[in-house]
Each structure stands twice: as C-alpha cells, then as structure tokens.
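Entry: Thioesterase domain-containing protein
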Amino acid sequence: MLHPLNTPLGRFGIDTSEDGAQRCTASIPVHGLANPLTGLPSVAPLAMLVDHLGGLVNHNRRGPGEWTVSSELSLELTPGAAAVIAASPDAPIVGQSRPLGSKDRGALAWCELRANDVVIATATVRSFYISVPADLASWPDQSTGSLPGTTLAALMAVEVGETGGAATVLMQTADPVLNNSVGMVHGGVSSMGLELVGSAALNAGAPDTPLKTASLRVNFVRPFHGGADAHYLAKPVHAGRSSGVAEARAVGHDGRVALLARLTAYR
C-alpha cells in the first residue's frame, strides 16, 4: 500500500505491504538521495523506514484507549551496507518488523532491513503506551498537491544553517505534511535529520574518504516542532583516521532539546 503524498510516509515513498500485530513489512526508495551537507549518498532514509516499521508493530499491539509514543530508536548497519545499496540503485530497501518480548506499559520491536535480498541492517524501536490524545488528527486518505522536489533536503524541508563554530546545522522549516497525527515532526523525519548532521560533522573536509555510518541511537525526549529556529545540530566527539563518534540533537522552535542521538561511523 502506497501512502498519500501529503503524509510523511507518502512523501518518502514508503510502501507498506503487511500491517499486523505480529509482523509488518514495508519498503522505501533511497536512490539519488544525498546528504545536503556533504553531497554524499545518504543512509538516513533507513531511519525513516525503521521508525515506521517498529512503531507500527508496537502500535498494532495497543489495547482499547491506548496510543503509542516512540521513546528510542536504534539502527545498526553492516560494514558493507553502503556498497550493497550502491550496487542495487533501482531496488528499494525492504524491511520487516516483529514484536520483541511481551507488551506491558511499553513495547519493543525488532526490524531487519534488506537491499536486493541482502541483510544490511537490524534495528529496534521502543514505544510506550499513553491514553489516546484528545487532539488526535487523522491522516488524509487521498493525496493532494505534489512533491516539493526530488532532493532529500526538499523532501525533508531542511536548509543548511550557518554556524560560527565546529558544529554542523540543518534548519527544520515548518511543513504540515511532515507532521504525525499529534502535530509534531514525524519521528522518522527527525531521526533522518540527526543522521544527516551527525554524518556531516564527522566528514567535514574528507569527501574522498568518508566515514560511513555504522550505528545511530536516538532518544525521543519531547515533541519536536519545526519552524522558527528549529534545527538539528551535531558535533564530533571523536574523529579519527578509522572511526568517529558524533553527538547530535534536535532543538525545537521553543529552544528546547527534543531529541538526542549518538552516531558512530567507520572508514
């Protein structure tokens, strides 16, 4: 099932083929999507797929009157993931999620991602259950309008930000299409933003021998809203010849940190 273009899932071309409490399957195209900060091919869309798949299988296990809020996302890529993706430019990334353990006040989902039937990543998404929000908005059933462009920056509605220090910044402009049903930036979109700035922070000045993302760990602290001064910010913690670690955060239009992340990369 392809989703309407005026939803976060539809904008990024996610196709959900299986939607259940014990297994969910979906795919996302990644060909031609580059990091707007480096110009290099990006694996950030994998975080969008993971957030959807893991969150969906957790959401499908909710009880009467319950809703889900994601609290953690963890993505682990194989050493050759980027090469496998590059070797199959026309093939979407296909993912499958399953419940991991029992459900109580929270739930944990496990995901596996494949490119051309080769496993390139595993991931987990942790969610907790709340009462159904009173101001819950329903997603549209039919698409209106058109895509804003074909670049990752256009799809995410992000702009390269200016900084006077060593940090790497992307500004998250307001775009209602990128919001989830509770009116905040979709968790997959914000996770992508964190991967983009984290990867760019580690690869500043080294476009010919880039460090490739190996893991991304995201904590969702509070709702993240775009617009005004909302942005993604990353700084390198360690940038060596063979590996690097960056810390990233998403700061909302209210100036408060909404998401925290740590990205590890290897040459």
